[in-house]
Amino acid sequence: MRDGQDLMREIVALVAKDLTLLLRDRGGFFFTFIFPLVFAVFFGTIFSGSGAESRKLPIAVVDEDSSADSRAVIAQLDTVAEFDTQGMSRGAAVEAVRLGRRVAYVAFPKGFGEARRRMFYGRGPEIELGFDPSRKAEAGMIQGLLARHLSAQVGQLLSNRSSLRSWIHETEVSVDSSATGGGRRGALRRFLGELDRFTGEVADSTPGAAGDGGGWQPVSFKNVDVARVRSGPRNAYQVSFPQGIVWGIFSCAFGFGLSLVHERTRGTLVRLRIAPISRGKILAAKATACLVAIVGIATLLLSFGALVFGVRATSPALLAIAVLSAAIAFVGLMMLFSVLGKTEATVSGLGRAAMLLMSMAGGGMVPLFLMPHWMQTVGSFTPVRWTILALEGAIWRDFTLSQMALPCGILLAIGVGTFAAGLKVFRWTEG
Amino acid sequence: MTVPATQSHRDTMLRLSDVRKSYGKTVAVDGLSLQIAAGEVFGLLGPNGAGKSTTVALAVGLLEADRGTVEIAGAGGPADPAVRAKLGVAPQALALYEDLSGAENLRFFGTLQGMAGSALAERVRWALEFVGLTARARDRVSAYSGGMKRRLNLAVAVVHDPPLLLLDEPTVGVDPQSRNAIFGNIETLRRQGRTILYTTHYMEEAERLCNRVGIIDQGTLLALDTVERLIAAHGGRSALVLDENGTERRIETEDPAAEVAKLARRGSLPRFRLEQPDLEAVFLNLTGRHLRD
Ligand SMILES: Nc1ncnc2c1ncn2[C@@H]1O[C@H](COP(=O)(O)OP(=O)(O)OP(=O)(O)O)[C@@H](O)[C@H]1O
Ligand SMILES: [Mg+2]
């Protein structure tokens, strides 16, 4: 008599066989992994504009000072390779950050230019930096880049000793020859002499262009929290990856359904049935293999998306629930695929047609929010739609557990329903 | 070749009792009964569409009989997985995973039979050696020739060393080399005491391998006995074929030696050959000469 360990070993053997066959079937591998990946990357890239731009930090720039100084600094910011700057009003900038369209805003308040001219005494000019608290890392980077570029300007001026000194000397000459009163003239001369000496000292102590000005801060930052409302995907890949994953899951389920037909027409199902294991176990193993493959493919694609394109879930636990629910739905569909026809040709043709239609209606090709209303209604009858919603819920829609319950519940119901329907029609023998 | 035609119940490895199976209006197997004794090689012969494969499918539980019972080794019917564990089957239609290698197919099906570890590895090695596929064990089955696939189909049937083998036309479509190799395999299995149900269209295979033969047509057994007794009963008479200056003359006779002696006594013995009844004659006499299908 066989014990539980034997049965487990048999199921594992059946699952391993199916997964091996999947990996060895080049066409199947292409449609379950390569194609979805290409789809996700291709459409993600198209909708993000050019790839180079997508890596820049989008920041909003608010110029409330409108002085020559603030304009000069902004012009300088525009040349920073890491930034994608856009000038706007304070209100628009705050809104852009709140909606996540811009990572941060940089505001130059009134009086910036004036403060900047008081270079070596009093409080330095202040720049306001607004960002979502969850994006501290990016804000820190922006602040660092700003500080570097602004002090580089000062450093340049200071390090260019000869030009500064010649400016001082020219000024001394013009002060001497002017009609300025004796007391003020003396004070000015003293100041310029001091400045001349200071310039020499500072320039000597800061050989690099990006010095910190000898302990003096050329600019200070005021940080403002802008709590973000998450109303849309943060980047196009967060839309294209769920779509790509649905293609992968769909192809996988379809491939397994086809493999059941294949086993029947090629006679291997006969061998499985003669073996001393029950029919229930044969199908359970097929379903398990399909489930494992789907979860594996989704995990691979999601990992790729996370590592290369920053497609990260706000909640990994909810993402796991979404993937598992989708996998169960599509295992049910696998069973239904396998009874679409008697021959592989019929099943393959009908299956592909179903895949195309469901993907189209369910948002697998065009994002759901871009589709006409009637099509969205049709789409809500497809598992594609609910899979995408569940994945997006975990990736950028910030679903709560109870919001996740709807798509996942529907997916589970689809899985159970289609599996039962497929099982009812399934034939073990040909003819 | 001297297994008695009747066996005690205990030693019966396969018993079909009055089984019937129809596909719609086609009656594929019509009230067939037979018993195969332990250690016996039983040949089931019949023209295309006679019901051989259907009989095998009923015996191993792939089909459920409309009527009648199947019992394996006195342990019950093939619906019980524990009973199926005693079976090794080589289906007429090759049943192999083309994208797995020969060794992988054997390992997979061996695992389903409850084998594991070194015992499994040992049996896989043995089975590959048995059918001469050791050198190609790692190649995908899709790269095998027809003969190699047939041999692997047999190897999968025996990898778990079952006591009862059902081989449905195990030599169909192979070259003489593979065919001889498969004959050799079956003779080895017979020497090892395996019970074998063997279906074929090739009469000389049955004459060479089988203790007893059943001839089936249109789902019913027409005759069932040892080869010698079948020939004696249904082979018809021997014939002397005389070559008299280019024209042939047949003389049918019960006693060819006496006939030759009679001709010799007349003093004019021409060139002649002797046609003795064989299993093919039995087969054609029983099933007729008209085409099937
Ligand atoms: N799945 C099926 N559906 C309908 N009829 C079938 C089916 N399988 C077999 N038959 C019919 O049952 C009869 C017996 O077929 P079976 O395959 O058992 O014959 P066989 O003796 O194995 O023939 P062959 O020598 O050609 O393999 C034939 O008339 C065949 O047409
Ligand atoms: Mg047949």
From TrEMBL, chain A:
One of its GO terms (molecular function) is ABC-type transporter activity. Keywords: Cell membrane, Membrane, Transmembrane, Transmembrane helix. It is a multi-pass membrane protein. The chain crosses the membrane at residues 27-47, 244-262, 283-311, 317-341, 353-375, 404-426. Its main location: membrane. Pfam families: ABC2_membrane_3. It comes from Eiseniibacteriota bacterium. Residues 28-423 form the ABC-2 type transporter transmembrane domain. This is ABC transporter permease. It comes from the Bacteria. Gene3D superfamilies: abc type-2 transporter like domain (3.40.1710.10). One of its GO terms (cellular component) is plasma membrane. It is found in: Cell membrane. Coiled coil: none annotated.
